[in-house]
Design brief:
By secondary structure, the chain is an alpha/beta fold. The chain is 28% helix and 26% strand. β3, α3 and β4 form a beta-alpha-beta unit.
Length: 517
């Protein structure tokens, strides 16, 4: 890795120099329209992406007297935007300028977005008009119109484009927010080197080449999509294919056929729905080499059903916001039922005892750890030094995942040693949901956990002790669910409410969530 390095140059500038006229980005607005219709599909070459990214970089940092925002190196730029092309262009534009991008989910409520805006101490926010948030005075707002003006100005005038900032590999590039055991999400700070650190995934999971077209079923503001669906294809000079039309659960085979996608990435639930409710006999998957799956454990029955219906392999990976995926199967790592795979080439992992942090014997469960030398590992948690220190122990970043390894290095996942839940591939803190529901006047006590509802399916459930004034009846649970939706992103909200007389606790009064399940 060069001494001066920027993630934006690696993912945008370098491929633009190698293959300027190759398609970098396809954004589909209407899956059923003619793929050549510019009203239905946006297409960007690497030459155009490079010009747009550096034009945005200039706009962010140029003095206000020259139509810019006058931001300084290291300032945070929060992105509260939909799945349009301006999201990745602004994300990489901020990084190209030496700023720190803070991508956020469009599913967040205004209240949640305002908290991240304050916690990140962002100097600016890129804001779509349909995603409202209260912006305090002094924070600059990037509207879609302003971004479009900057891009247009730099399209034919190189003077309106900033050079890529010269940065150190360990300088921060972006911050993503993820749920932990505490109530509020915590910011995960990733370095410029993080894109370089993803290189083991190219062969270890994807088999990714510059000729690929990568379709991801998630939104670009999700870290899984931002990495797998955008950063990695751009780093090798491939094409990223994004869909921002109506959420039709069966649209993905149509998009694969229409745009000749070679790789398709999604969470297990997408594959489950496709094989249960779709008609594989009508799908044209001749361009597709294989599917990729991550976000939560893949049930064996879903893999078997997909591969039988499509005759295409499905390769699983295990990862997390702090390092992305680092264990996987793939074209060079045979699938082993019941395992997401083994450490990708170049990765160093260990299984450590929960008691003293020493390595455990083969076959014994312990906490999964990643060596701190891995260039894809986060710098730390944003302004949470104690939590960073707790996760970084000696030479290892120690996760909360309980796993075991066999003699061949294949990993078996045994769950988590904390209470963090997994909902549709998103990590959700039960404490955050509990704190929300506890403010409802009809709730005396509440505990939240994920309850299994079949192979590979678990739903967030709230166990509620009603207040004395509560009107407990058929509508009681729905009132609490509706209340949660007003304050939390949809994927964090409980889908069931169970009324109980009391919550299980230890002799010291500590909640025993495991007993609720």
């Amino acid at each position: 890795m060069p001494a001066e390095y920027t993630m934006a140059r690696y993912c945008v500038g370098d491929p633009a120099a190698r293959r300027p006229d190759h398609l970098a980005l396809i954004v589909v607005h209407d899956a059923h329209a003619d793929p050549a219709d510019p009203a239905a599909v946006d297409q960007w070459t690497y030459r155009e992406v490079d010009a747009a990214v550096r034009s945005i970089a200039r706009g962010l940092t140029a003095p206000t007297t020259e139509g810019g925002l006058g931001l300084h190196r290291g300032d945070r730029v929060m992105l509260r935007m939909g799945n349009r092309a301006r999201f990745p262009l602004t994300f990489f534009g901020a990084i190209a300028a030496g700023l720190v991008a803070v991508p956020t989910s469009a599913q967040l409520t205004e209240e949640e977005a305002a908290w991240i805006l304050a916690d990140s101490e962002a100097a600016a926010i890129a804001l779509d008009p349909d995603l409202s948030v209260a912006v305090p005075e002094g924070i600059a707002i990037l509207t879609p119109e302003l971004i479009a003006t900057w891009i247009a100005a730099g399209a034919h005038d190189e003077r309106q484009r900033a050079p890529f900032a010269d940065l150190h590999p360990d300088d921060p590039a972006f911050i993503t927010y993820t749920s932990g055991t505490t109530g509020r999400p915590k910011g995960v700070v990733h370095a410029q080197r993080s894109a370089w650190g993803r290189r083991p995934m190219y062969d270890g999971w994807y088999g990714l080449t510059e000729d690929d077209v990568m379709l991801h079923a998630g939104a670009l503001n999700w870290t899984y999509t931002l990495g797998v669906g955008l950063t990695d294809p751009w780093a090798v000079g491939a094409t990223a294919l994004v869909y921002d039309g109506p959420r039709e659960p069966l649209v993905w085979p149509h998009l694969i056929a229409a745009h000749r996608a070679t790789l398709f990435a999604a969470v297990p639930g997408v594959y489950r729905h496709l094989v249960r409710h779709g008609d594989p006999s009508t799908w044209d998957l001749t361009s597709l080499r294989h599917g990729l799956v991550a976000g939560e454990a893949l049930p064996g029955s879903v893999r078997a059903a997909w591969e039988k219906a499509t005759n295409r392999p499905l390769y699983e990976a295990l990862g997390m916001s702090e390092i992305s995926t680092f264990v996987s199967s793939g074209p060079t790592t045979p699938v082993r039922p019941g395992s997401p795979g083994r450490a990708q080439p170049g990765r160093r992992i260990a299984v450590l005892s929960q008691d003293d942090g020493t390595p455990v014997p083969i076959g014994e469960a312990g906490r999964l750890a990643v060596h701190r030398s891995d260039p894809g590992l986060m710098l730390g948690y944003w302004r949470r030094p104690e939590e960073t220190a707790d996760a970084m122990r000696d030479d290892w970043f120690v996760t909360a995942d309980l796993v075991s390894l066999d003699d061949d290095g294949y990993l078996t996942y045994h769950g988590r040693c904390d209470d963090v839940m997994n909902a549709m591939g998103y990590r959700v803190s039960p404490v955050e949901v509990e704190e929300c529901l506890a403010h409802h006047p009809e709730v005396a006590e509440v505990a939240v956990t994920a309850v299994p509802k079949g192979e590979g399916v678990a739903i967030i459930t709230a166990w509620v002790v009603p207040a004395a004034s509560a009107k407990v009846g058929d509508a009681f649970g729905q009132r609490l669910i509706d209340y949660a939706h007003r304050h939390l992103a949809a994927y964090k909200c409980p889908r069931e409410v169970v009324v109980v007389e009391s919550l299980p606790r230890t002799g010291n009064g500590k909640l025993r969530r495991a007993d609720l399940r």
